[in-house]
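We give this protein:

***
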Amino acid sequence: MRPLKLSVAVVASVAATSPVLADAPPGRYTASGGTVVDSATGLAWQQTIATTGGDDGSGRSTWANAKSYCAGLRGGYRLPTAKELLTIVDFSKANPSIDTSANAFPNTPSDPFWSATPLRGSPPASAWFISFDNGYAGNVDMMQPNRVRCVR
């Protein structure tokens, strides 16, 4: 029994002192002209997000305005579904929980981002968001300003 307890203690010690901060596998994301293509899903994402304007002056928008913002961009952008937005979460990272390398999503804040997915079975004025501080999925009133990253 003693060797087993010693092994567990060593593993726990290594896990506690060795944070995992890996970016996506090389080649997963390709950035060009402000768009990031995800080779795992085929989706094309906005590389940067608005940090001014929106409904609060710092780039955050209500759900309806987020949908309008994406639809108004050139190239067929739209607000992503919750499932699509979860595909770019990097659960091995926190604050933010996304690949922030130059070929992916640099300068992404650890904030909630709107999805196009309304919450079913609740007041019709709620929708899902994904928070990039830790990848948490939650829902909130559609009038709450959140960040926006569009996809096509």
In short: Residues 93 and 123 are 33 Å apart (CA to CA). Confidence is low (pLDDT under 50) at residues 1-21.
